[in-house]
Structure formats: C-alpha cells, structure tokens
C-alpha cells in the first residue's frame, strides 16, 4: 500500500514541478522576451526596415562577416534567445547557417560579456573556478573563449550554408543562381 501512495505522490509531484517551471517561465523569461521583441520591433520601425535590411545585406554579403561579425553583434546586443531574430534579414538559404553560428556563440561570449547569456554562465564559471583556485587571471581564458568561439561559428556557418544550399537545390527549392523558387514553380 505504501508503494501506491509513493507512486501517486511521485506522479502528481512531476506535474507540480512542471507547474513551478511553467510559472518561472511566465514570470521570468516570457515577459523579458515580449519586452525585447517589442523594443527590437520599435527600433526597426523607427530606423526603417529598409535601412536595416540594407545594412544587413551589406554586412552579410561576404561569408566571413555573415558568420562572424553579424552573429557576434546579434548575441551581444540582443542576447540569447532574441539574437536569432537577426536571421530575418537574411535570405532563406542562409538562415539555418546564421542560426547555427549564433547559437554556437552564446557560450563563448559569456566570459567577456556575461549579459549575453547569463543562463549559461555556470559553464564558464565551472571552468574558470580551476584557474581562480590556482590564482591565475581569467582574462586570457575569456579572450581565448571568445576568439575560439568566433573561429568555430565561422566554420559552422560555412559548412551549414553549404549543406543547406545543396539540400535546397536537391529538393528543387533553389535555382542555379541560389535564388529561392516560389512554391508551385519548382
């Protein structure tokens, strides 16, 4: 009989825990995201979507900028998870690679700019604790994290874009020039 009581308590406890996580989201990150989305959309409206799109096109014309500076700016200014919205200014064939670059950068950025992804700061702190225990400076670690992160996001962006374009061409979604074919015309 005791087993059934424990099983029932454990079963309902799982849903109680889920409810607490949900309330944390409702009172924590969801309002933050709504305010960030509103602020970003307001800035886009004030500046003008055409200007921002033109800036994004100029910045992302070359893959080296598209998969280094562009995701770094997105993560630095919009933080995780809002940074991924910068992808809206890219053509469809480049969006997956931008997302891959941006999502891969939210960890290496925390050493220098913890505001960009405070939820993952524990990873950096866990590693840096060993250095502080030895009395060593964290500056070189943070800089190496950042530089390594930029190299990794560049490589991931390039590889992901190549794979995406090949898959889209194979599925008849892109023409020979890499332009998106409207649905029903492929």
Automatic annotation (TrEMBL):
Record keywords: Membrane, Transmembrane, Transmembrane helix
GO terms of biological process kind: phosphoenolpyruvate-dependent sugar phosphotransferase system
Matches recorded under InterPro entries: PTS_IID_sorb
One Pfam family, short name: EII-GUT
Transmembrane segments: 25-44, 64-84, 142-163
Superkingdom as given in the UniProt entry: Bacteria
Protein's name in the database: PTS sorbitol transporter subunit IIC
């Amino acid at each position: 009989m005791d087993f059934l009581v424990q099983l029932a308590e454990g079963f309902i406890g799982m849903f109680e825990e889920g409810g607490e996580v949900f309330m944390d989201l409702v009172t924590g990150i969801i309002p933050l995201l709504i305010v960030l989305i509103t602020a970003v959309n307001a800035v886009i409206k004030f500046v003008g979507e055409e200007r921002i799109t033109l800036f994004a096109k100029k910045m992302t014309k070359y893959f080296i900028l598209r998969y280094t500076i562009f995701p770094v700016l997105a993560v630095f200014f919009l933080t995780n998870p809002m940074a991924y919205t910068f992808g809206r200014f890219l053509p469809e064939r480049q969006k997956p690679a931008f997302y891959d670059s941006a999502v891969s950068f939210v960890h290496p950025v925390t050493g220098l700019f913890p505001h960009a992804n405070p939820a993952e700061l524990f990873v950096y702190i866990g590693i840096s604790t060993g250095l502080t225990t030895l009395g060593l400076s964290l500056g070189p670690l943070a800089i190496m994290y950042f530089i390594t992160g930029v190299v990794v996001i560049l490589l991931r962006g390039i590889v992901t874009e190549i794979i995406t374009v090949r898959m889209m061409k194979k599925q008849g979604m892109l023409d020979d020039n890499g332009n998106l074919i409207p649905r029903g015309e492929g």
